[in-house]
């Protein structure tokens, strides 16, 4: 594998892993879904898992990598409100859980940058 393709393959792997986890262990993801959204939280969890798997496939395939990188950046941006919700909901949680929830927020931006770099290098 050419080193220029490594970031894309790692991104596809990370997205694919998270997509599978939405189905294998859905309960933690259910808690990120705002109650104000229509339908069941589990349906949203499964739908977002499908989206992550589809984006992973698009990033993995050289022919669709440019679009996949953009889709990954938009996906990372789209899940940011769920991460904010998780941090706010952790107000009364033990300190380590609160710290992890808040520490996740700034990590979203490097993920977006990574996805855009994959898009630009496609």
Task: Calculate Rg over CA atoms.
Answer: 15 Å
Considering DSSP H and I runs of 4 or more, what fraction of the residues is helical? over 70%
Number of strands: 0
Proportion in β-strands: under 5%
Mean pLDDT: 93
Instruction: Return the string of H and E elements.
Output: HHHHH
Biggest beta-sheet profile: none
By helix and strand content, what is the structural category? mainly alpha
Number of helical runs? 5
How many angstroms does the end-to-end distance come to?
A: 14 Å
Morphology call: globular
pLDDT < 50 runs, ≥5 residues: none
Structure characterization notes:
- The structure is a single chain.
- By secondary structure, this protein is mainly α.
- Helix content is 78%, strand content 0%.
- It has helices at 6-24, 27-30, 41-60, 65-89, 95-121.
- Helix 1 (6-24) runs antiparallel to helix 3 and helix 4 runs antiparallel to helix 5.
- The longest helix has 27 residues, at 95-121.
- It is globular and about 45 Å long.
